[in-house]
Design brief:
Radius of gyration: 17 Å
Order of helices and strands: HHHHH
Helix content: over 70%
Low-confidence stretches: none
Strand content: under 5%
Shape: elongated
Length: 109
C-alpha cells in the first residue's frame, strides 16, 4: 500500500490540492451566497483535510522511504511554507472578493 502511495505521489498531490482549492471556493460560496454555516464548516473541514493530511502523510512516507530530501519532499515543504504565509493572504483576498461579488449581485437583483 505504501509503495502504491509513493509510486503515485505526484498524482495524489495534484488531485488533493485541486480538491482543496475547489472545496475552498465552495466553502466561501456557501458562506456568502447560500449563507449556510453548516456547509461552510463542513467544507472548511474538508478543505483542511484534503489540503494538509495527504500532503503531510505522503511527504513523511516519501522521506522515510528514501531517507533524503528529494524534489517531492522539498515541494511539500515549500507548499506548506506558502500555505502558512502567502496562502492565508490569498484566501483572505478571495474571501473579500467573493463577499463583494455576492453583495453586488444581490444589489442588482
Amino acid at each position: 500500500m505504501i509503495q502504491l502511495l509513493i509510486e503515485y505521489k505526484w498524482t495524489i498531490l495534484i488531485i488533493c490540492e485541486t480538491a482543496a482549492w475547489l472545496t475552498t471556493f465552495y466553502m466561501l460560496y456557501a458562506r456568502y451566497w447560500l449563507k449556510s454555516k453548516i456547509q461552510f464548516y463542513i467544507f472548511g473541514a474538508f478543505a483542511i483535510i484534503t489540503g494538509y493530511v495527504p500532503h503531510l502523510t505522503i511527504g513523511i512516507l516519501d522521506f522515510i522511504r528514501f531517507q533524503k530530501l528529494d524534489g517531492f519532499t522539498m515541494f511539500i515543504i515549500i507548499l506548506f511554507i506558502f500555505g502558512f504565509t502567502f496562502g492565508k493572504k490569498l484566501v483572505t483576498k478571495m474571501d473579500l472578493r467573493i463577499q463583494n461579488w455576492v453583495n453586488r449581485q444581490r444589489e442588482s437583483s
